[in-house]
Task: structure prediction
Amino acid sequence: MATAKIVRGVSPPSRVLLLLRSRTLTSAVRPYSAATSPPSKAVVYDQHGSPDVVTRVTELPPVEIKENDVCVRMLAAPINPSDINRIEGVYPVRPPVPAVGGYEGVGEVHAIGSAVKGLSPGDWVIPSPPSSGTWQTYIVKEQTVWQKIDKRTPMEYAATVTVNPLTALRMLEDFVALKSGDTIVQNGATSIVGQCVIQLARLRGIHSINIIRDRAGSDEAKANLKQLGADEVYTESQLEVKNVRGLLDNIPEPALGFNCVGGKSASLILKFLKQGGTMVTYGGMSKKPITVSTSSFIFKELTLKGFWLQRWMSSDKAEERQSMIDYLLGLCHNGKLNYELEVAPFDDFHTALEKAMGKRGSQPKQVLKF
Amino acid sequence: MATAKIVRGVSPPSRVLLLLRSRTLTSAVRPYSAATSPPSKAVVYDQHGSPDVVTRVTELPPVEIKENDVCVRMLAAPINPSDINRIEGVYPVRPPVPAVGGYEGVGEVHAIGSAVKGLSPGDWVIPSPPSSGTWQTYIVKEQTVWQKIDKRTPMEYAATVTVNPLTALRMLEDFVALKSGDTIVQNGATSIVGQCVIQLARLRGIHSINIIRDRAGSDEAKANLKQLGADEVYTESQLEVKNVRGLLDNIPEPALGFNCVGGKSASLILKFLKQGGTMVTYGGMSKKPITVSTSSFIFKELTLKGFWLQRWMSSDKAEERQSMIDYLLGLCHNGKLNYELEVAPFDDFHTALEKAMGKRGSQPKQVLKF
Result:
């Protein structure tokens, strides 16, 4: 799939008044000095609610850079659905308000504390695990927050690697021991996770069956996914047959399915799965629950589980996480992992936000460029 | 719970014409000799359909007892829901028609082939794993089919141990590593599996939360289950509150749930389960599917699985199966495992069948006595 990268220019820096010390906003003002960050232009929300109502772009004053701190000038950060849910207050884990939006992104080291080793100004870093407050121009956090990455990585991929591609990679690893020649089935296949699943599976010789919504342009979407390496792509209405598995020609029945839609679309995954298969739910775009027959559990012996990246990220697997991120960024750098993004200048934050909220029709994921 | 054992007398033997050679019915007739079984009075069905329509009680002629065969005079056999489903033709695994009904039971060794060792006339045996054709007075099958059991076991428990109590025992073992002080939650708690779960959990120091239907007599049912060792018993309507877990006083939230009902009753189990818990479905008495929210999978990290005893039984675990059956029969013998049964004379087969089919209101499990 050709990626659409629409760069509309970068917003100029500006200077204002509020103080951000990590995630805590107060009204104190500190003097600017060599041991402080520049002021930071940030997307702040003081209460939970609809993001287009409760967020405002404002400038936070300089904060102190302590001996173990790193001051990072942010380069880019995406607007993910979970960012929207955190601002709405409906996400199970969220920062206390007032808070700065955003959860992942990439930045360049601007200044380091006196005790920091292994990072220098100019290095590229990402917060790993992701942590809140990436929608701003300067962040000061302890060195342990930051993972240094290869600067050759395309910026918009570096900004988005820790949520969607990592979800795809983990789901292919954590539930069923897949080997070359096996098959997976997924819905929501045009999502970034879906696109990554197709490509990461293909790299391991794993076939993919992909389910997409019926919509104008579905033929183009099918062609795009097949270009990424999808074996089969069906719209939901194509699967309104009794024996969906009869549609498969030369690939084995899938032992693993990924569901990010729910409702009827999840049931289609269950129909494809082979005896003893597993369906992993990681999203619910239709806002409809998953309905399963008794016999699917007893006689077809299916297992249903969920995947929550934030839980996995907060577990004690720092080394594995870092090497996975390096692996994924290497694939991005080498052109083996591609997905559709739209880069939006930070000055146009509210336009990008409306697109991310679905208020302007179907749009690619929005990546803020600072 | 006091067990209701209503013995209505035993049917006299009778003699007729058809030949049963194991599960195959033919019209050949063999002469009676020392190396043949007595004729067998049997419940036969020639085609799938409603059991009260397609079954007939008839007499099958003697069959040869080969050197490795054991001829067993059946003493008792239950009418299980899966027996009904096999005759209806809706069970995934079923014998070819024509067939004799029934799948488990207990009998006494009547005669043995010349090469049989370790079994003598008068011994009690059960088919283990259960196998089809137990609704008849004499069965001839190879010695490997039969497991010798302790004759001190109450007959109606020996006849029913391999399906329901074994399901309860396996479900407590196979999904979550439970320790003393843990809790399970189940619906359909008045079923035999439900009664066994309560008692087997109690023996291991495991608490049980039990859900029963709203119905006349629910107070009595609650008292009976508490006598068996249930910690908590709720009717479904009692659980129409937002925070069901707030109802629990002194017992921990359950990590494991058993569902044999489906529909709303299954949702109540999901509400009780703690973070990361597992629900095992082994039946669907309401004939309604299971509906699960996306967030139950992602944020509550629930796992949903199924249990099918027949699959477990057909696996290569003969020794483990035998020792479990001995353990369960020992508990029955010692009065530590009790459940409600109704013993019905074989002559009244069609009355017992109607009760088992639910045509005469709520009835205990029917056990045919030959």
Summary: Residues 318-333 of chain A form the longest helix (16 residues). Chain A is about 25% helix and 25% strand. Chain A has a mean pLDDT of 90. The interface with chain B takes residues 92, 262, 281-284, 289-308, 311 of chain A (CB under 8 Å).
